[in-house]
What we know:
alpha+beta, CATH 3.30.1330.40, five-stranded mixed β-sheet
Amino acid sequence: MKYEQKIKELGIDLPAGSEPKAMYIPVKQVGNLLFISGQLPAKADGSLLYEGKLGSELTLEQGQECARLCIVNMLAAVKFYLGDLDRVKNVVKVQAFVASKTGFDQQHLVTNGASQLLFDVFGEAGKHARTAVGINQLPMNSPVEVEAIFEVE
């Protein structure tokens, strides 16, 4: 199945890709690997879906929503770079950073929001190695940031 068609079937509208707002590039290709910069759960207007920390201001479900939106933004960045998501061969690795209150220990469950969407879009090719890390603070008071490595044809 074509991945962009699958995204439409899931009811997802990818935002338009754009140039970065700071000193980095969203996607760096080395050989057949794409290293995708950390994505925040930003809505189309640039504001964050939620702000704050998991375990205090936000629920597990809100964190999962954020992780999912990070992947939507990641797919938009990859599409902007490649021109066609059907060039994606595999999702190799995902790393998620979860802003967490001390004692919150469900970063892995927050990250499932990202992993599930990658599987829903790419099927078996969306299964990946993964790290989920709890941290004190993220840029712009974001609750979640997700980065990844994709293999492309």
